[in-house]
Amino acid sequence: MLTMILKRLLLAIPSLIGVVIVTFLLTRALPGDPAAYFAGPAADKAAIEQIRVKLGFDKPLIVQFFDYVGDLARGDLGNSLTTGQPVAAEIRARLPASAELTLLGLIVSVLIAVPLGIMAATRPGSWIDHFCRVLTTAGVSLPVFFTGLILVYVFYYQLGWSPAPLGRIDVFATTPPSVTGFYLIDSIIARDFGMFRASFNQLILPAMTLAIFSLAPIARMTRASMLAVLSSDFVRTARASGLKPSTVIVTYAFRNAMLPVVTTLGMVFSFLLGANVLVEKVFAWPGIGSFAVEALISSDFAPVQGFVLTMAVMYVALNLLIDVFYGIIDPRVRMEG
Amino acid sequence: MTETMPLLDVRDLTVEFATRRGVVKAIEHVDISVGKGETLAIVGESGSGKSVTSFAVMRILDRAGRIAQGAIQFTSIDVATASEDEMRDLRGREISMIFQNPRAALNPIRKVGRQIEDVLLEHVQAEPGNVKEKAIEILRKVRIARPEERYHAYPFELSGGMCQRIVIALALACRPQLLIADEPTTGLDVTTQKTVMELIVELTREQGMSTILITHDLGLAATYCSRVVVMEKGRVVETAKSDTIFKAPSHAYTRKLMRATPRPGVTLRDLLPEGEATPVLAPQPVDTTTPFLVVENLVKEYPRQGVTKTMAQFFKREPATDSQAFRAVDGISFSLARGSSLGLVGESGCGKSTTSMMINRLTDTTSGSIMFDGEDIAEIPAKQFAKLPLRRRIQMVFQDPTDSLNPRFTAARAIADPILRLGDLDGKDAVRARCEELARLVGLPLEFLDRFPHQLSGGQKARVGIARAIALNPELVILDEPTAALDVSVQAVVLNLLQDLKAALGMSYLFVSHDLEVVRLLCDHVIVMRNGRIVEEGATSRVLNAPEAEYTRELLSAIPHPPV
To answer: From the list B99, B104, B122, which residue is nearest A243 (CB)?
Structure first.
């Protein structure tokens, strides 16, 4: 198992190198001149040129690239042109916010979607199957900013159950001492349960918004994969051996049906992590998605590069995690390692 | 009551399936009874309803199926009306089942020992404290060597025969009164089939169990069962003792089945129903003196696959050494004369299919030469061969008639495929005319030419596959188990067709098969292979009637024959 993980890590190196090259070239190919933007509308040609030299844009592309790689090796992702802050620090601060939100959203989604998918598969054509279809279709067709706004309207404005959608924690509260960067976990470590409640209350609405959106792929995949497994020979053997329906469905069918669901989960997670910009906007969430979009709009190439690279590393790590998980579920995968 | 009550009594059973085209009756008015300790065979071809009958007895029909009529009495329980909880108690403990395709019948990601434990615990045959010992004891009973170790094995780590033993262990774990074995040995090699069947017979006899053996193989039914029920199209056509039914079959369908079963002492024409045999064609005069295909020292090695190899290649480490490579074909030589047919037989994994793929130039050789009409085709990479004119002269008929046809091509389009790729016919009409000519040649009614594979029967699909192979007038046709997926009566017709085509068109056949009886009927020469090497070769009549190699004798003696 350990050798398999090491091998997968080694195999990830070429793709990471590729990502570094592609992001570098892509950000250079972006329309707009960062030097002109940075100099401001009042600057003259000479001032812009001065900034260009200061930023190193006058050097040939290949030299720029090696400068970039050299900085990368030192863990330096460059500075944001708009804020002047180091990109690495910015990402370190914002990534946990996005990750916490996405993870909780995904957990909620799995807790609803998987049982729903199983129930729909065991009773195809029943009301629960139709309910599952309607719910998932609705969830995926409503844009996230819309569901987000509806949730805010109902639970904050009408019912007053949840706090104002203004970021990760009440503006007047202090943040928990940072250990993992996840407020929920940090507040438990600090044994500050009031803080836990406060951050959970802030988190639950955006997490629900994401959950509603990501229900569809997980529930549909669970249903389809359960249906396929339930009609397989070994499930028939299990039934013919008189095993309890719960044993047949959980131990025999579900564990086998989980394989494609796990793959889907990985894809949904990595997709949501970067793509939940709209949710972050609606809930004023200081996440990585909104950070990247703002940087992109202002031709601020360093944060964009940093963001894409972070996403790529996350994606590789996630795929590794899925492979490991696959190995735990399926002994046949373990053998190949 | 004077008569002792049978263990299982099925009366007037009708099972219906709700389909898109309305209700279909899978079986109608079926009567079957099994006494205590009796072994009963249900024999029939595909679609005869033999499996549906057994599923109904266990009440594990699909959602769409239902018992429409009739009674199933098992001891004192009425299966048709019993509650689901009662049925669950019954399944596995009183009636259990062995399935076809043992590897698929086992949960692929659960240790086999745990799967046996599940059944034992479900039926309270063991306590959590001693269940492991009991499971291992059962594994030992089905003669699994090193049961403590195999307890931890997953199905993919075991051979097909071994998996079937695990399935038998599952079925017999709770000492049921009735065992239903649904094609338990289909897909297994003959020698494995023999050991598996003997194991079933021994264990059931030991425990005084009754057995229902569902099979398409008359020989198997006759060898292992005392009574035989013959089913056709959802109805029972004949029930009789197994020693009389084959000697004096009273129903026409039983007679037809009997005739169609390949066995020693008959010719291909004898397999066809009475009065349907056409006169044997005289073979085309061809030059049989010069060898036409000469294979010398053919070797195929497969390197170990997997991540390790990819990594080794990636970092340019030393390539896999010879000891690591697996030799699928280990230096075989033979020759084939024009107009003759050569059978390549052996059990799974013996290298017969790899050999045929190399000669057909679908797989590259590791070393050795294949002289085809004076040219060494082993030197031509398989990737390029498809573009050469030589491709027209060597064609192939594949094993699975369904999987080897493009589901989106009509029969005519499938047959025309090689003509359009390699042929020199111009114009739609010329191609169509050739397709019709080929269809007539293989006995496919012309109206079937515009149908898609799913609208054709197994035999018709086999004919399409044959028509496609002969479309370019090849000189050598490689047939890879072309009848393995067909019912015996269809097999009889297809084998005769192949024989006639060979005579009419002067082709040579390389016939790959695991079925020695089929080879006996179709081939002039035979090669017996094992572990990539030739064990024995010679004229078919000599090898199969007076085998010299111990292994050939073993293979021949493992074939169950109906008493003639």
So the answer is: B122
Are B372 and B363 contacting, i.e. CB atoms less than 8 angstroms apart?
Answer: no
Q: For B62, name the nearest residue in chain A, comparing CA atoms only.
A: A231
Q: With contacts defined as CB-CB under 8 Å, which chain A residues touch B166? A: none
Write out the two tokens for B90: 């019954």
Q: Looking at residue B187, what DSSP letter applies?
A: T
* Any A CB within 8 A of B99 CB: yes
Longest dimension (CA), chain A: 85
How is domain A106-163+205-336 classified at the CATH fold level?
Answer: MetI-like fold (1.10.3720)
Residues of A in contact with B99 (CB under 8 A): 233, 236-237, 240
Q: Number of Cβ pairs closer than 8 Å across A and B?
A: 90
Out of B110, B123, B306, the one facing A242 most closely (by C-beta) is B123
Tell me the pLDDT band of B563, cut-offs 50, 70 and 90.
low
Distance (Å) from the C-alpha of residue A330 to the closest C-alpha of chain B? 6
Is the pLDDT at B416 greater than 50? The verdict is yes
Give the pLDDT band of residue A337 (cuts 50, 70, 90).
very low
CB B401 within 8 A of CB B465: yes
Greater confidence (A188 vs A208) lies with A208
Query: pLDDT-based confidence at A171, cuts 50/70/90?
Result: low
Mean pLDDT of all residues in A238-248: 91
Length of chain B: 564
In chain B, what are the domains? 8-260 (3.40.50.300), 291-557 (3.40.50.300)
Q: What is the pLDDT of residue B564?
A: 59
DSSP-derived secondary structure letter, A254? I
According to DSSP, the β-strands at B235-241 and B227-232 are antiparallel
- Cβ atoms of B490 and B458 within 8 Å: the answer is yes
Q: Which residues of B touch A1 (CB under 8 A)?
A: none
User: Could you give the residue ranges of the DSSP H alpha helices within B264-374?
Assistant: 307-314, 352-359
How many Cβ atoms are within 10 Å of A104's Cβ, its own excluded? 20
Among B429, B440, B438, which residue's Cα sits nearest to residue B469?
Answer: B438
Is B171 touching A (CB cutoff 8 A)? yes
Q: Which of B60, B154, B170 sits opposite A239 (nearest CB)?
A: B60
Contact A236 B90 (CB under 8 A): no
* Mean pLDDT, residues A142-171 taken together: 83
Span B381-410, pLDDT tens digits: 888 888 888 899 999 998 888 888 999 999
- Mind telling me how many Å the CA of A79 is from chain B's nearest CA? 37
Average pLDDT over residues B122-135: 90
Question: Which of B59, B84, B85, B109 best tests the A interface by mutation, with the highest count of A CBs <10 A?
Answer: B109
Encoded amino acid at B543, one letter: V
Q: ipTM score here?
A: 0.78
pLDDT band at B120 (very low <50, low <70, confident <90, very high): very high
Of the candidates B18, B159, B60, B25, the one whose C-alpha atom is nearest the C-alpha of residue A230 is B60
Contact B110 A251 (CB under 8 A): yes
Check if B169 contacts A (Cβ < 8 Å). no
Q: Which residue of A has its CA nearest to B64?
A: A124
